[in-house]
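#lab-general

N.A. 3:47 PM
ok so I finally got the sequence cleaned up, no stray characters, all 285 residues accounted for. can someone with queue access submit it? mine expired

B.Y. 3:52 PM
send it over

N.A. 3:53 PM
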Amino acid sequence: MAYAGALRVSGVAALCGALVVGCTGGGGDSASPPTTAPGTSRSSTADPRPTASATPGTDPNREPKTAAQARGLVQQVIPGPELFGTGVVRATPYESDPGQWAVLGDDCLWRLRPLPGDALATLTRHFEVPASGAKGAVRLSATVTVHRTALDASWEQARMLEEDLDCTEQTQRPGERLTGLQSLSFARGEGGNTSGDDLLLETGQCVSDTHGGPYPYWWQQAVLGTVVSGTSVCGGRGRSEEELNSLVAEVLPRMLLRVEQEIGRSGGSASGEPSPSGSGTKGGS
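B.Y. 4:20 PM
back already:
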């Protein structure tokens, strides 16, 4: 069943790749940043209002009920650089503060705030492909947030889409911003999404005082039960969109498969203890 889940998600991965190449305006010298994304104009294909129905692929009895269980699940979903494949290493800083998450203000600036009561655990890990020769570094991120209920997770996804539509320019931190953002949302059964309750895609460009730009950027976030998983990529000098897509096309599907192994109806463990198959949301910092 878990392997079948991986096959189902791969269709979404292929779709994401097509959208990234189709929606991002940069050339071979463009790349994109990780973590949070600033928005320019965005379009959505789905009603942002969340629904209370649980996904047919998860078992509510196996979803984490405590912060300790949630942290255990997070470690299973985000391992290390191997999540992205060979050539990827830990970035500095590597991990976000698990007691905080990023909130987008009315001024379109991301700020760290205490983890809200409806979330049990969250973690963002940062990675990179080091610069080599004429090619600049590629920055990558993976984020997992575990909520108390599936409805809470759906509300996070809905709020994110609303923020993307309202904030067409976003500042991740001083000297780093995202521009030209466009968003697409796919409910289960739409656009090839047959594994997540909801899938949100964002493309645009990232600009950094340190790394330069603009470079192509994209970010993907999916909800499965009480878990929200996201990944982002920000390219660098000389990095093609095809090269960037090859780095992230299968990452979110891998994360969703691990979530399914932990809280799905057919296997895994949400106890917070490592499962035999596992190894250790947008705006992470």
